[in-house]
Amino acid sequence: MLLNETYPLSNGVQIPKLGLGTWFIDDGKAARAVRDAIEIGYRNIDTAQAYGNERGVGEGVRASGIARDEVFVSTKLAAEIKDYDEAVAAIDESLTTLGLGHIDLMLIHSPQPWDDFRGGDYAEGNRAAWRALEDAHRTGKLRAIGVSNFRQRDLENILGSCTVAPQVNQLLVHTGNTPVELLAYCENRDIIVEAYSPIAHGEILKNPDVRAMAERYSVTVPQLCIRYTLQLGTVSLPKTANPEHMRGNAEVDFVISDQDMATLRDMRAQDYGEHSVFPVYSGK
Description:
Blueprint: E1 6-8, E2 14-16, E3 20-21, H1 27-40, E4 44-46, H2 54-63, E5 72-77, H3 84-98, E6 103-108, H4 123-138, E7 142-148, H5 152-159, E8 168-172, H6 180-188, E9 192-196, H7 208-216, H8 221-231, E10 235-237, H9 243-250, H10 258-266
Parallel strand pairs: 3-4, 4-5, 5-6, 6-7, 7-8, 8-9, 9-10
Antiparallel strand pairs: 1-2
């Protein structure tokens, strides 16, 4: 069963292949969504300081009745924090807010603050934030550490000076937006890629070619899109608060042919509708 399958990170920690993304799930509704997901069988829950729902996510995990070490919980250091002391304080704040004893994976949310996304040079600030993650990892507060939205040059900046290499890079990956070279770069350096927004915020549902392919496999478009990211070798993080969708998203035990994988990989579809206002979707 897919929900029981994991990838090994470079430090031996196992990360479940399918997770629940919680972006845009209000703090007041997050506990219920997380509890529902865990009841369905999910063991990988992804949040972030920027989502404003760490408290609810932690509550959901605690209320699930599942042993803490059976649920893999990730959060992210706010993109604006590019300073060692600020990062140390923010890591401790997340630990307190989640209330789960430790965090399984913590990422730097972005190489630049959101209001300067793909803008200025924050190389030194990222190295400082990374040192804070390394220190928290060394003391056992964080079981694994990584980055998000980092391109090759951003990764090289960390790899050039770190004592612990990033174990994860969480990226926007979906049919229509497959960063093939970056995926290969991460794979060659034993960095697991997590694919967020694998359903491209729902805009892909309108794509006639993708719909036709999904019909050929007798699956839904979201199922095809999630399966695609899994076959790329990534962790897939579809976001939903709907238990029915959670179940459907996990029912992806079919195989996409090599030819269809190539078609999906070469597709260009980057219209994100209302979500185009967010920096990561705006093409900056």
